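job 3f2a | input accepted
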Amino acid sequence: MFSLSFYRTSMRRYLKSKRAISGAVTALILVIVSVALALAVAVFAFGLFGTFGSSGQVQAIGTPVVNVKNGDIYLTVQIKNSGTVAASVQSVTIGNITEPAGSFTANPTSIPGGFDGTLTIIITGVTHFPGVLQQSNIGGSVPVSITFSEGSLSPTLTLQGVLNSTNVA
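job 3f2a | predicted structure (169 res):
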């Protein structure tokens, strides 16, 4: 039979003959995994996937355009409803002006499933305009948020529009 010392010596030789991953390779793998994990968290946190999961199928294509004329705000945006359920606009925010359904005009009023076209929203009778809708911001960015009712879902598109024209001094 084999003695205990022979067994220990044999095991040491066996374990030493097996090469492990070096410390540098291990550190490199850990860095790559942590960067990939950080990117995945950032993508979800900042909504870079757009509509995802149960948040609806309405998407904006391109950049919304905002025009201001005689106390009225005109928002034009290319919309695509890739779902099968019709959606309707429930509220809109342009700058810091928020209007619920019924206090603005939307054309079309209902966005059917498969729709791919222009949505125009008109807010009338505005008396106070925020700085992003002033002449000094023509060509500048305007925050736009549109909430839809889509079956049991209420997805919100948060966008950055462009102020095309305004007659507000």
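job 3f2a | The chain has a mean pLDDT of 84.
job 3f2a | closed
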